[in-house]
């Protein structure tokens, strides 16, 4: 797993799916200022990278959550990733909307899900875990047995760890913030003197300012 952690961190930096700008922070939709911006959908534009991520997900699922009946992606960022994994594992696929569709059948879950099925949820990014766990709750309400979740990257916020523990959801990520910082140092994407600032942000992102 350590090999996957390092490889995926490097690929996210290489593809610019993750950008580190400690001196020019980004503003998230939440209003938080952040020295890091992550959009893992960028990896889909690179066949070699998306294929490696698909294979890594498949390996983690087979090791941690054997014999699932179905793969579920979280809209919108993980729809494509989840479908790729389901195809590789020859499993059915559904995706979970952030809210029910406002017309037609008003679906919250798109695709065919049967009660009692064992489901692995695929996510692209974990920040606080709120939207990811909302998808888990929707699947549980529909009668699924959610065996766990896999994601490409996690910031490693304590709030997210608490939320997943309280929801009784096992989470495995292909890489994480700590590994990313190490990879960025090795690649020259950041300088040694910037590490302390990046670590400070992760400890208290809501209050962090440059």
How does this model look, in words?
With 210 residues, the chain is α/β, with parallel strands linked by helices. The chain has one domain (2-203): Rossmann fold (3-Layer(aba) Sandwich). Helix content is 40%, strand content 22%. It is built from seven helices and ten strands. It has a six-stranded mixed beta sheet, sandwiched between helices. The chain has a two-stranded antiparallel ribbon with strand order 1-4. Helix 2 (47-64) packs across helix 3. It is globular, with a radius of gyration of 17 Å. The model has no long low-confidence stretch (mean pLDDT 94).
Summary of the model, kept short:
It contains 7 helices and 10 strands.
Q: Please state the second-level CATH architecture.
A: 3-Layer(aba) Sandwich
Tally of DSSP β-strands: 10
Physical arrangement of strands within the biggest beta sheet: 7-6-5-8-9-10
Instruction: Summarize the amount of helix as a percent range.
Output: 40-55%
- Multimeric status of the protein: single chain
Secondary-structure-derived class? alpha/beta
Shape: globular
Biggest sheet character: 6 strands, mixed
Total number of domains:
1
**What is the percentage of strand-forming residues?**
15-25%
The count of helical stretches stands at 7
